[in-house]
Amino acid sequence: MNKTRELPEPHKYSVCASADMSIKEFYKGVFEEVYIFFHPFIKPKTLDYDLFDTDTYPGKNDIINNCEMISWKQFLNISGIKNYKQLDIGLRTLISGLREKYKNEKTAEVIQKVCEEHKIITPTEGFFPEFVMNSILSVLKNQGHDWIWVGDEFCTERKLEYIADLIEDNEALRNEHLNLFTHDSKVLITTHWDSHFSMLCSDKLTIDKIVKLCNLEGFYCDEFTEIYWSIFN
Fold first, then answer.
1. What is the pLDDT of residues 20-52, one digit of tens each?
2. 38/128 Cα distance (integer angstroms)
3. Rounded-to-integer distance, Cα 193 and Cα 60, Å
4. Hey, how many other C-beta atoms are within 10 angstroms of the C-beta on 46?
5. What is the DSSP letter of 219?
6. What is the spatial distance between Cα 45 and Cα 66, in angstroms, rounded to a whole number?
7. Would you report the helix, strand and coil content of the chain in percent, each value rounded to 5?
8. CA dist., res. 221 & res. 167, Å (int)
9. Mean of the per-residue pLDDT values for the chain?
10. What is the rounded CA–CA span in Å between residue 169 and residue 61?
11. Distance, CA of 200 to CA of 76 (rounded, Å)
12. With a threshold of 0.85, does the pTM exceed it?
């Protein structure tokens, strides 16, 4: 009989944390800190609102150059939604990403209504946010990282990419479930497939610098923060 083939456990410096445990516990001994940064909303300026569809979704640099970034804080002010937790739950509800008992249909309806009225695009889940990725990559490049690994969800496949090329390429980072990690395994940028945020994993000094220079919106994980932080924290 043929032996069942089982994949080895992935290296934790190259994949997203598991959803059933503390994020910091998952990366213990690998990364000192983890910063959750929200995927911004998008408001088209010189692009057609209707282009933001699966088949015609604009490229990274098209969005940066022709749209306005709407932060979660700005969206709270526009919508009247109380806080980030409620907004996260509402976004997850919109994509049917929660069990029935955790859903908040009222908040999901508010998000949908506000977006329709103001011609705002909701953040996409499982994809890196276009508005901030060039900035993050530029900071890493300026810190001496000319190359970065781009891996799939479980890093069974990965490709070494020149960071300057990723910044220039309008179609770069369009795939779901990607993981970006530096060649020295000291920095990881990862996103969960059902979440509207990404995670920046490294030492505190490096993260502080990237957060400040890129004006990232989010928060540091504590010992109890999980992927579904808005529900369980």
1. 899 999 999 999 999 999 999 999 999 999 999
2. 10
3. 19
4. 8
5. E
6. 6
7. 35, 20, 45
8. 28
9. 95
10. 8
11. 23
12. yes
Residue pair 137/164 in contact (Cβ under 8 Å)? The answer is no
**Parallel, antiparallel or unpaired: strands 179-182 and 218-220:** unpaired
The CA-to-CA distance between both ends of the chain, in Å, stands at: 47
d(CA 192, CA 190): 7
Can you give the residue ranges of every domain in the chain? Answer: 21-38+126-225, 41-118
Q: Give yes or no for residue 1 having a pLDDT over 70.
A: no
The residue-averaged pLDDT of 45-65 equals 92
Q: The dihedral of CA 43, 48, 50, 55: what is its sign?
A: negative
Tokens of 74: 């700005």
For residue 11, give Cα distances in angstroms to 35, 199, 204, 233: 19, 16, 21, 27
Q: How far apart are CA 223 and CA 15, in angstroms?
A: 19
Query: Dmax of the chain from CA atoms?
Result: 62
CATH of domain 21-38+126-225: 3.60.90
